[in-house]
Design goal:
Helix content: 40-55%
Largest sheet: 4 strands, parallel
CATH topology of one domain: Rossmann fold
Strand content: 5-15%
Order of helices and strands: EHEHHHEHEHHHHEHEHHHEHEH
Strand order of the largest sheet: 2-1-3-4
Number of helices: 15
Structural class: alpha/beta
Distance between the termini: 65 Å
Shape: globular
Oligomer: single chain
Length: 338
């Protein structure tokens, strides 16, 4: 099948990270963030084991294994958009494995140096593969941007008003990657949440923290930090998934998106948010067997703020050692603040 001949009667299109979902929606299809489906599953441990039984190595990124099993389990999934540059090199192996098993795979790449022309070319190719013109996505962009502005309000109410928890912030921001496959219903739920949040009393005082790195495989870390008297007021990558950029240029919107590009571009964004939100320290989350672990070196050399790096493998809950390190970090920061 040639790239231009993709079947346009698809129902659900899986995505492995944030991609131009405006194109998918404009093509009349439903994007499904496979990461979100995996981590929200009640049996995500079984999904990891299923990938290993299929041949994935034990010492391999659990996100990739989870995405693989999730994609194979979803009977109504017609294709997967795999980001071949700007996310994870392991995605190449995932893409080839899914192709071998009969799954339609649509590649998409973010140019490393954020070149507008190269990104425009990728987006045109993506639109063509989905059976539309890139200009057809303009109406979908206007629709989704209205929802994204509401997600940005969730973010503001987290760090400025202090009425939203770090976990709630995480969930609403990260859900913007696919709008849960139904923008109308997602916006309806978001509107209800904002009404409820604005009527809350301010949450108890807590040590403000930032969270940087890939979203956690164990979202329970937010609740544990709250138990320790700390609260995440800045979710770096999750905020980027909500594309909080004031532009009507679809290509520029994804050029401003920091996650798939150089760590140095990401650091510029992190520094701005540190200055604005004033966290006492940062939690840098790294996934075992992920190349982004090396970025911890650059972050520590570039940011003048205490950083705790935590690493998880295939557990979707916090282990005792990680809890102890988080407790010590929070205790240290509280002591420094006295």
């Amino acid at each position: 099948m040639t790239p231009s001949a993709i079947i346009i009667t698809m129902a659900k299109i899986g995505i492995t990270t944030t991609v131009p979902i405006e194109v998918i929606y404009a093509a009349g299809q439903e994007p499904v963030d496979l990461n979100n489906v995996f981590v929200a599953s009640d049996d995500n441990r079984e999904l990891l084991e299923a990938a290993e039984l299929a041949g994935f190595p034990r010492n391999f990124c659990s996100w990739i294994k989870g995405i693989y099993s999730t994609a194979r389990r979803m009977e109504d999934l017609e294709a997967v958009v795999a980001v071949t540059q700007g996310d994870c090199s392991n995605t190449h192996a995932l893409m080839e494995t899914l192709q071998m098993e009969g799954m339609e795979v649509i590649p998409f790449a973010y140019p490393y140096e954020r070149d507008y022309g190269l990104l425009h070319h990728q987006m045109v190719s993506f639109a063509t593969r989905m059976g539309i013109e890139l200009s057809d996505a303009a109406q979908a962009m206007a629709r989704l941007d209205r929802i994204r502005r509401k997600a940005a309000e969730v973010d503001r109410l987290t760090w400025e008003a202090g009425v939203i928890t770090g976990l709630e912030n995480h969930i609403w921001q990260i859900s913007c990657s696919d709008m849960e496959g139904n923008p109308d219903l997602f916006e309806e739920h978001l509107d209800l949440f904002l009404v409820e949040a604005r009527n809350r009393e301010t949450l108890p005082d807590a040590l403000p923290l930032g969270y940087v790195g890939v979203p956690p495989i164990a979202p329970g870390l937010y609740g544990y930090l709250e138990e320790l008297g700390a609260r995440v007021v800045y979710n770096e990558t999750q905020r980027q998934f909500s594309l909080p950029f004031d532009t009507t240029d679809l290509v520029e919107k994804y050029r401003l998106y920091s996650y798939p590009y150089s760590i140095f571009y990401r650091i510029e964004d992190i520094k701005r948010e540190i200055e604005r939100r004033r966290p006492a320290g940062l939690i840098h989350y790294v996934q075992s067997f992920c190349f982004r672990q090396v970025e911890d070196i650059i972050l520590r050399r570039s940011l003048n703020i205490p950083i705790l790096t935590i690493e998880l493998d295939n557990s979707t809950s916090l282990d005792a050692r990680t809890k102890m390190r988080m407790e010590n970090f929070v205790s240290m920061l509280k002591g420094s603040a006295r």
